[in-house]
Design brief:
Radius of gyration: 43 Å
Number of helices: 18
Low-confidence stretches: 41-68, 298-303, 505-517, 533-538, 547-558
Oligomer: single chain
Length: 591
Amino acid sequence: MASLFDKLKSFYSGGITIRNIKNDTIKILDVYNTQSLGNLSTNYLQSQLNGIYRSAHINYSGKTGWGGSNETDQILKLYRDYEIMDQDPIISSAISILSEESTTRNEFGDVLYIYASDEKVKSLLENFFYDILNIEYNLFYWIRNLVKYGNWYMKLDIAEELGIVGVNPISVYDIIREETYGVESKEQVKFKVTDNSEFAGEYDSYEISHMRLLDDAVYLPYGKSMIEGARKIWKQLSIMEDAMLIHRIMRAPQKRVFKIDVGNIAPDQVELFVQNFINKIKKVPYVDQNTGEYNLYYNIENLTEDFYIPVRGQESGTEIDTLSGLEYSSIDDIEYLRNKMMAALRIPKAFLGYEEGIGSKSTLASEDVRFARTIERIQRQVEHELINLAVIHLFMQGIPLNKLMDIEISLTHPSTIYEQEKIEIWNVKNSLAREIKETKYLSSDWIYENIFGLTEKEVETERGRILEDIKRNYRYAQIEEEGNDPKDTKQHVSSDGDVRGLNDPDDIKYDDTSNINQTPDDKEETEKKSEKKREPEIDDPLGKKDRKNDSLDKTTGRKFKGGSPLSRENLNNLDNFLKKTKKISIKKLLD
């Protein structure tokens, strides 16, 4: 039994991630959730924020951006401010909302949408993100720190033929990004981790994953925090809130004014008389904290104490009046700064519990669309780095370069209203295109190019796909209605049971790909021409052009279809001609 517990102890000690390799897949058991946040002491505000205001011992000097020591100290000060700002309830809620909305699940319960033309590549990526990185759990913490600091770093554990087998988060306080540019040399990116971290050393760009929000070139090569715009306003708001609290405590309480009639008491005895009066009225005497004894001589007249005023003469008589406290009139200033801070956070008030600015559902819907665009911008930055991780993982497993570039990774869009608006736009475009086509004002090429924004090559591709859809629908109809699969039998079965080969000139040529690029308009024109051939010509109502192979009339020496110019078939042709020319029907003449 002891050996079993020893195995269990070794299972949970030492290496934090446990890898199980089976059928070309890797399963990571992150026992202590190291991949989400790691052992970052700066995230826990140890020793009353002493960890935040620790001195930075970074002697590296970078080539661009914030590389120098002064610049490094400046960005570390920003990180320290962000740590304290995260303790504010509004800003902390805003950071969490941005992170939660960026990691919502789709209708299938997935956080990520993974596309790859190759099924093996897609399977490897699903195993990588869901089984190795545990993206469903870790992504929220990654994005929250990304929103908070503007940067997020992870050291990648890369194994040959296996790819990335784990990640280790690195504190933003302990790493520097260096970028080197040159005319002859290519761009080089290096990461230097300080001695404060367990991963101290210098790393190449592919060994460190650096997520960053590229909003402002001033902060390059680092990202800009989503709460940076509210930093100055937050400081002003904190000062105003502190001033309000001090005023509420010290100046707002009501106080009493005791007017004590001292009568004819000698002036040198008035103070003693008033003090005795106070001692008799006071219920709670002052207790000396040092000795624990009552100090009955404590009579400091601060702003929280009552006033005792001796009076005599015409104002004689003991009275007790109430002195009202001062009212604080700067609430409007605090609300102004709070609204300004919320505007900098780019989150609707209703999402933070302040609904006084919402007049109707349509207003909230419009704010939701603007907020969705903010979330979409964060997601694009994260998707870019996730694709980089996927490329590194697939490359180490020997996937060809052409397949590496044919992958797509996207996060779920949080706003259904935003999606509904896009669908509504497509509905309007579709209706407009249908009306233009029905009125025949403009060509289908103009519709494709100007309404749907397709190139000439894309138009040809879509027309070919439309024809494939028509073929597919014809095949489905044959299978459903007649139980015949024309792709296998090469035959067409009509509704009355007639069976004809698809190669007959009067039937649909299922396998004919000569007209694969034929547009629906061209197909309709072709059908009209074929119908027109089957009808008699207007200029030839008696069908002279079709009498080459007809029998020869012995009396006139001429050939007539049906053996006679007055045959029933020719009479029908003549009758159709008279109807089209709005003349009397020949059948009425014969009747």
